[in-house]
Design goal:
16 strands; Rossmann fold; 9-stranded mixed sheet; GMP Synthetase, Chain A, domain 3; 3-stranded mixed sheet; globular; alpha/beta
Length: 373
Amino acid sequence: MMAKDIQEQVLERLGSLIDDELGASLQELGLVGPVSSRLRRVSAQLYYVGGAPEVAQRLQAEADAAVAELGSSVTVELLPLDPAGQAQLRERLMTPEMLEARTTRTPVFSLPGSTARVIGVSSGKGGVGKSSVTANMAAELARRGRRVGILDADVYGFSIPKLLGLTSMPRVIDDLILPPKAFGVKVMSLGFFVEEDTPVIWRGPMLHKTIEQFLVDVLWGELDYLLVDMPPGTGDVALSLQQFLPRSEIFVVTTPQSAAVRVAQRSALAAKKLKLPVRGVIENMSAFVTPEGERYAIFGSGGGARLAGDLGVELLGEVPLTMALREGGDQGIPAVIGAASDLASESLRELVDRLESLGPVRRYRSDLKVQAK
């Protein structure tokens, strides 16, 4: 009887462990194996979805800690989930929306019932800090309890994994990709599959297929926001995103200097030609602020406001360049998390306030008419 009680406790404790990337308990996912008792020793098995070695190491540590109070006679063995088990888990995770998306090769974010806001963060040229802004915006939204994902579509200059401190390969369940999480943000990037110093030399069709796979074959789950870190310019990836995510809202990042503003304006006008609404402008590196609080407008001033005026949209924020912002990017810890009191972090929080206050873009269907009686 005592052994049975212990077995039940072991099952309960192991089953209540949460797989953060899947957002469910191991019991709900069917990953708790048999628990047996022999000669006053209790043995349990857990199954895990393969990936980087640290995935199994972390789960083993969590399992050992969960049963530690039951005594040293309890041991937990980890086993990789076999192909049949992966196929069963995949079916358990698939929602009707995901089945439709995979059948039609249409992202769930483009299906009629989706409530996720798709935020395309764009720039005309590289080097304006677009990815840093994206990573910090996402981390701040997640800190507020929003369900957030980042699609790193900057396939030639991917940097989101590094900015968020992600180094592990995504796990794969059968043919379903699990996006790694950092600071509550789900991330998918080509940077997980290509060595950091390896150049990506691909033609348009290969890029198009990669973006499609990242949108359709990744288990994003239900999101409030999908932030898309777009590549600079108006090339193949921008066209693919317009095709896959026609409900995107575009926010343009620029520095104050005139050269950056002119190029950013071309990017915004290209988005409008693709029928993607430009909702606002973000001025990054508005000034360099020293640790002592001195401000230097090293890239000039007023460029973001001029661009917003020319486009007829709101200037959502002016983010200064600070040491904490730069250091956070190098360390893989967004400034809004690691340096919350920094001036750049304050500006980024205000930027997110304005982003949320804008609300999703209103869309009208010309085929629907209201007839007066």
